Amino acid sequence: MDLFGFLGTILTPFKWLVSWIMWAFHEGFTFIGLPSGSGWTWTLSIVGLVLVIRAALIPVFVRQIKAQRGMQALQPEMKKLQAKYKGKTDQLSRQAMAQEQMALYKSHGTNPFSACLPILIQMPFFFSLFQVLSGVAHASQNNQGIFALSADQIKQFDNADIFGARLSDAFLPQIQNGNSNISVVILSLIMILAMIASQFITQKQIMSKNMSDEAMASPFMRQQKMMLYILPLVFGVGGINFPIGVLIYWTTTNLWTMGQQFFVIRRMPTPGSPAYREYMKRREAKGLPLVNHQGKKTEETVSEVVEEIKGQRVQPQRKNRRKK
What we know:
With 324 residues, the chain is an all-alpha fold. The protein has one domain (3-74, 110-277). 74% of the residues lie in helices and 1% in strands. The chain is built from 15 helices and 2 strands. The protein has helices spanning 3-31, 39-56, 58-73, 75-84, 91-107, 117-134, 136-141, 151-159, 171-177, 182-209, 213-216, 219-239, 244-267, 274-285, 302-323, and strands spanning 161-162, 165-166. A hairpin with a 2-residue loop joins strand 1 and strand 2. Helix 1 (3-31) crosses helix 2 (39-56). The protein is elongated, with a radius of gyration of 27 Å. The N and C termini lie far apart (88 Å).
């Protein structure tokens, strides 16, 4: 079995799931009166697929945030560890340093790969959708279905378009075939630019607003700055070969990520970051209790203080009565 055949076998369950979710949304939208063969009905089905996947990933996203906070919390200890083994290049020293790093990660309940977890989980769904949509034209010509989608639905999807561009068409094949549809070219470029912009803005707002001063000064930050420009470029170049349906999926999931990060930065900012300082100012302006870098209150509300004082007074009174 070749590599592509092996990957295809691994992705088979994801292809079934992706096609089934699209089928379910398409049936639902058709039931409420949308045209079955409309490109907008199929577009909304793809958007529905994104919403289901991203909603299911919310627990993973929460875990990612906790892991990122843990990574930032251990930065001072990591610097001490790096200073301890600075200049030591022998194998025993490298092994000892690696073991101590793993112990630090374990004690803080985090690891350096946690930030990549949501996107790694999404990739099988992304590639599955890509393969499903890429096979639409061939399946339509042979009157075949694709997993949960019937042959009739595949024909509908193959002919479905928005703004004159079919959802199963892609930018590069159109150019290579020499009979390019200008609507496909223009819409693909717009979607690719939207995909790149949304991903760039999301990463930029994290780096400029939601990273502590220590994290900004760390060597890891230099790699993050490189990825800020490299990743959107990679997806932009790859996007010219994506069907419009896949571009809709990826742009929608990027918009979800951007909105999700905006919420986190505003409501749950990283301690020590510019967003955190702004958050503290807003709480102070509203007269709310402030919180420290561990997320604990630095000023208790009056009612909490009163309750605490009452609790402290109760015990001495009971002891005195017992003595009497």
